[in-house]
Specification:
By secondary structure, this protein is of the alpha/beta class. Helices cover 33% and strands 21% of the residues.
Amino acid sequence: MRKVLFISQNNYRQNEIDSAVKRAFEHFEMKFKPGEKILLKVNLVAGHDIERRVTTDPSIVRAAAKIILEQGAKPFIADSPGIDNFKNAAEKAGFLSVAQELGIECHELTEPVDLPVEKDADFKKIQVSRFVLEADKIINLAKLKTHGQMYLTMGVKNLFGCIPGRLKAGWHYNVGLNREKFASLLLDIYNGVKPSFTILDGVIGMHGDGPTSGEPYGFGLIGACVDALTMDFWLCKMLGAKFEDYPLYLAAKKRNYPQCILNPNDIEGDFNSEKIFEGVKLPKTRTMRLLPPLPFIERLMTSRPVHIPKLCIGCGRCQAVCAAGALKHENRKLHFDYSKCIRCYCCHEMCPVKAIEFKPSRLVSLVNRFTQKNSVS
């Protein structure tokens, strides 16, 4: 089912969120059997205060869990942060308090097992948490954000968190600089996990240097769908982003997925899907697509992570998360080996104080200057 419901919602008042989420469940006739185990897959990339808008808002998690409990099923909240202690991260994000209030479980996605993948999958050996496969249904509670490596993170990208802990860093290293290849991995995970339903928290999301160091942006919507790919592509258009810069779209197009052709009849709800959000800052980690995506070319064309010493608190998380072993942290100074760096930006993503930013490559900067000079003359 390619239908997407966009609901106008400008705040996180619990009664209004309850109403919007209930509307979404009823619109798609989502039903649960007594005793069914329902995994609520939140976005818990790292432990940040709710006001940073890095994670799924707890009001949406609470609303979804209450609907499932009312039908006699057994929801549990789960995810796998990139590097943070799960309990601490879940407490900061407000998920532990929701679980305690409703008397449900909230735990980390651990214990990797093989994910059954489709015959035409590019990646045949993917491991996800056993809790994912043991759940009777998966409700995907994603967050609308920009993303340094993958341009945007929404419904499909959220399921990368089904891969336990440090195994995610291994995938970053194995896939390397090829973003379309990484997007193909995301498609294989999405097709293997098969979430029953996706709700997207776009009330206040993030733009700029997402998924953790950007700025909050009030998109004013809640998205709901069975087919998250269709929703993600519609939102790409609404954000004013270019499909040719969106690796997930390029990977899906290469597979001839029908979702790549947007059909206005698929959109329902009271939010205007023709709206283009104004002033959205998109990641500038890759600004040119003039040459083939070979590794040495990607390094020339892709922005580098750089250190801001005055903001650094010396926590060492950047070095700990770097799967490529491309940086060394000493006395609050980072030393990058850009010949090893795979531009996954995990160091940027896991920095709690925004002490790592992006710097355009020299080649891109030169071409941009030349282009601007010619346009002026």
